[in-house]
């Protein structure tokens, strides 16, 4: 028998043996948009998904009917730990970041934002490399060490949204992006920036740098290549623009040309976008609904908090009561369905078992079917022939026969014709 060939999708799947432990433990995320339809909000959602790659659903399809419960129900099998929701309202654009499945939830107001396409188009030298999005970015938090419960919660939430980096085993070639979050204690806002990281060699002229990196120089104005390499005044980009504080000594060998191990190189950042200016509004204990732990705009007394807590508990109890009633009603409906089904089956059986069939079954069970027919045939033979039949003539066992009402008359007629 020919062996069944695997499909194309199965052959291309690299995780046929199961997901690795590193992939399972990495924080995954959903990024969705809700509220009033807005093209810019949808585009911003896609840009934020790009920031969260590769551990996010970049092609996630959503509908208006989808609720947060729908995403929570599938979060467990997919190892999703965070959800980010951009919601457009009449008052403005808001961003909610929640830890799945039980919270907490942080609500930010997006005061200003710029899409990734606008940020990239404003740069003189653009650097967008698709390979950079195959690995998670480096997270840098600034000024989150102040006092206040909200700062600690924000810092832990932002850190846990991205996988941790082990300094002893990290590969520098995989660190291609950086996410910077700067907290301004005066305005109480957070500046969100997304950069691409580039490493450039330091201490070589511009001509030597071009040759080392494999670029073909224009030698039309020079008689020899030595003139191009030794021409004064041509400094490399890193020497002209970079500050000496950006120079680092590489601990590993880099893929890019000109950067060698234990050599000096310059770290350059190129903004990828999007830009966000966020203001923390409130922190909730649960998932999108729960006790408010912190609110920036509203302050309530202890009595008001206790009253709200009691109302929440009463709503919770009422919800549980309704849920229990629904479960009891479902059980009753299932029992009624079963009883109706049993009754209908009994009625069908009664219709099928007619009086004749019941008589046949009784005759078969009592073993009288064959004897009655044998006695009738012997009596008929005596009347027609006038002699006693042989002992073996009607005593042959031919299986259980039906009563005469079915075939008795027909069999007698055939035997009478044979005798004539």
UniProtKB/TrEMBL annotation:
UniProt xrefs under InterPro entries: Brix, PPAN-like
UniProt xrefs under Pfam families: Brix (PF04427)
Q: Where is the composition biased (Basic residues)?
A: 1-14, 311-324
Provide the Brix domain boundaries: 27-289
Query: Where is the sequence biased in composition, kind Basic and acidic residues?
Result: 379-393
Top-rank taxon of the source lineage equals Eukaryota
Show the segment(s) annotated as Disordered.
1-21, 304-324, 364-397
Q: Which SUPFAM superfamilies match?
A: Class II aaRS ABD-related (SSF52954)
**Classification via PANTHER family:** PETER PAN-RELATED, SUPPRESSOR OF SWI4 1 HOMOLOG
Put simply, this protein is called Brix domain-containing protein
User: What phylogenetic lineage does the species belong to?
Assistant: Eukaryota, Metazoa, Ecdysozoa, Arthropoda, Hexapoda
